[in-house]
Every structure is written in C-alpha cells, then in structure tokens.
# Entry
Amino acid sequence: MISVPKGCKDVLPSRTPLWQYVEERARRTAERYAFREIRTPVFEHTELFARGVGDTTDVVTKEMYTFLDKGGRSVTLRPEGTAGVARAFVENGLQGGVLPFKAYYLCSAYRYERPQAGRLREFHQFGAELYGSAEPQADAEILCFAHAFLRELGLRNFTLKLNSIGCPSCRAAYQEALREYFRPRLGEMCEDCRARFGKNPMRMLDCKEEGCKAIAAGAPRVLDYLCDDCRAHFGEVQSLLRAAGVPFTVDPAIVRGLDYYSRTVFEFATDAAGAQGTLLGGGRYDGLLSQLGAKPTPAVGFGVGLERLLMVMEAEGAETPAPPAADCYLLGMDAPSRTRAFLLAEELRREGISCETDLMARSVKAQFKYADKAAARYVVVIGEEELSSGEAEVKDMRASRSERVKFGGLAQYLKGGKR
# Structure
C-alpha cells in the first residue's frame, strides 16, 4: 500500500468543517480590515526566494523543495507566502496603483524539515500584507488585525511579544556589536552560527541549539542601538496599541528568522502549543521589494500556520461548530420506493435542502440506523402505501413526532422546519 509522504497529512471529511471554520473567520476578519484575497502560484523561480527570503536563512539553505523543470529552470515550491505576494505586486504594476495595497492569502507551503507537532513539510498559512505605508499606524493596524483574528477564534491565552530591529543604518552598528560579542565565543557555537557570523550575526540570536541559545542570552540588545527615527517609530507603535487596547510586552529577543525584516517585528506566543510556542509572527520589511529589483516600497505583514493554530485551539478548548448534518434522510422501504426517494432527493437539493438517500440497498432497519448516525433532523419514509397516496411520512427526530406530507409539499415543509 502507498502511504502519504512523510511530513504530510490528509484532512478527512470529519476534520474539514474545523478547517473551513478557521478559514471563514480569517476571511471575515480580513474583510473587516479591508484586506482582499490574493492567490499566487504554488511554485516560483528559485531566485525569488533566494533574494526575497534571504540566503542566510535555514529556509533557503536547508529547507526548500527545489528542482529543475523540464526546461532546465530551477523552480521551488513556496516555503512561505510573502515573497510570492511581493512578486505579484511588482509584476502586475500595483506599485503604481492606489496605496496602501492590502491583501491576504490562504495557501499551502512546503519546507523540508523534521516533522513535529504543528510543523509539517506541507503546511498551510494565513497571512496578510500591507504595502505602501511606512507609518507606525500601518504596523499597528497589522497587529490589531492579527490580535482580532486570534480573538475571533476564541483564543485567549496568548501574548503579543514586540521588538524593533531597526533600519539598515542603525542595524549596522548593532551587527558590529554582535560580532564583537560573539567573536571570542565562536568556538563554542554550532557550525550554522559560525557561518552566520560573517553574513548576518543577528541570525545567531535565532539559533535553536541550547548551547548557542545560552551564549546569545547575554548578547547586546538591539533596542540600545536604535537611531532616533527607529526609536520614535517603535514608541508610536506601542502608543497606538495601548490606545487600541491590545496588550503586549517588549521582548528584545524577538528577531524573526527571515532576512527581509526591519524595524517592527513581533510574535504572538502561547503555552498551549508546548515547547513550540510561537503561534503567529510577522513584522515590517521595507527592504523586500528593493531586494527583488523593484522600487523601494515600505511593507508590513504577518503569517500564521493553520496546523499550529488548530492544535492550539484544541488545547485551549476553543468553541468550534459541530460538523454539518443533512437536513433529511429519504428512506425507501423497497426497490420502487428507493427509486422515488432518489428522485425526491434531487428535487429537494434543487430547492437548497441538504439530504441523503440509500445508495447501498440497505434494509429498512439499517437505513434508520444510518440516518441516526448521520444526525439527520428529518427521516422521510416512503413505502408502497406512500407511493400510492403520494404522501410521505416525515419523522421529526428532534421533536419525536411524525406527519404525513405530500411529495410536492416536502420542500416547503422542510424549509419551515429549518427556520
């Protein structure tokens, strides 16, 4: 038997209502903030991610699914959603349109990494991108949007952790301070950190190795190196969040893992997910579009993995909708009755009524059992007598009563019951 590839999971019909619920809440929250959906290809030219995500990140150096297509071109399955949106924004001439440009996406993404709870090789993301505004209000709106989305799902046990990693100007001094700090300790650090030392020492702060984490804990704080403009920007973001009633803590350890971030960075963290506590993350990336060869354009956004989100919702016991059930089950007591039930089912479906009928030639007893398991509110019973009279026996399973209803009046009767 062929099994699902490692790091991938099937979403079975028993689970899809929960996924649809989360996706619907994502769309609903996005629309309240006037974000519109964008859909981009599942694969892109590899150069997009090498330039956009950053060639010092684990995503690019270790985790991307990259291959040559039949034309010999290097293409990559998207490891995240932001780079594709940035490419679409530039390629479709949206830089010259009305700004800010506000878009959200719901997409699959792919990273070759060790599967663990809430982290798969094929996973799904909800994200939002805001292009064109360098104002702190844009950062605050993205943060309020993310906060509102998590609250919309019924989540309460999370913390917003906020930081600023400055602009390229002030970050240069900070990176040099990091090199001075880490240089005498490089021999104690992992191979990845030694490679990052020359290219991007801030990535050393994001290492997951316990020894490296212990050393990084004593490193200089980026907040001490912010220029006046970055410090003022960060202060205004905090003021706006306080005024909007969005609680947060400033955490200098938040640096985010991708190279395109600048100034505001953030994570929504939770204890409900165990050791892997980051629930949603994002920040400002004013340099991304220029890295892609386009006109510099300020940008800010966030992304959240849906698998992790669902895991946290279940851990917190967040209220979710019950799986949908058919409005009615049409039960045929013999072959001619099953045929009539089949045709009636089609008529009812055209009237917008969800219904099932027997497709397995089951006995009457077995059909009643199936209708009960399917949680159908009504069972419409058709036998020889009902065929003769043109009336079905309609059993209301909630009210434990039954009525005779003409075949032609079933749709109206059932719609009245749905109210």
Notes: The chain is about 40% helix and 20% strand. The mean pLDDT is 91. The chain has two domains: 16-167+227-316, 328-418. The CA atoms of residues 110 and 277 lie 20 Å apart.
